[in-house]
Amino acid sequence: MTREEVAQLLAAAATIDPRAPQPGELVLRIWTGMLADVPMKAAERALWAHYRQTRETIQPADIVNWWRELRRHAPEERERPPFDPELIHRGVDRVMAALAARKGLELEAAESEAGARRLLRSVECPHCKAPVGQPCVQPHTGEPLTKRPAHPAREDAALAASADLHA
């Protein structure tokens, strides 16, 4: 909250509770610091909830605790955009192009590397059973491969699948 928002909140509290702190210089500075991470709308809702339950004068901790509880019990069903693999691919391509530009690599090499990685990950790995879209892993440890982009069996499967698409 800003200093002005804290002043508005204290004015609202004073209309309900005559014992509420007056928005003097020190009070505003302290309350603003304590409520800096609380949105104004949430602070107003906390004020209303507080005075609906008690006659005690509200304190910054009452507002902060109300805000923490609200966030802690936020609904798990947050809206997520629908999964769009093409959007992810475009994002990967942009990142690869930015890295290529930064490192002075040829853009074509970076694009072909991202395209090759997509092609390899377009099929399940017959060797380690890595699912589509996921990198190959060492079968015994589950660690990602470090010396190759994929197992040879996955490379063969991806090339075969690509050949079938273009035939």
From TrEMBL:
Sequence ranges assigned to domain DNA-binding phage zinc finger in this UniProt record: 113-163
A Pfam family the protein falls into: Phage_zn_bind_8
Biased composition range(s): Low complexity: 158-167
Lineage of origin: Bacteria, Bacillati, Actinomycetota, Actinomycetes, Pseudonocardiales
Region (Disordered): 134-167
Superkingdom of origin: Bacteria
Name used for this protein in its record: DNA-binding phage zinc finger domain-containing protein
Annotated source species: Prauserella endophytica
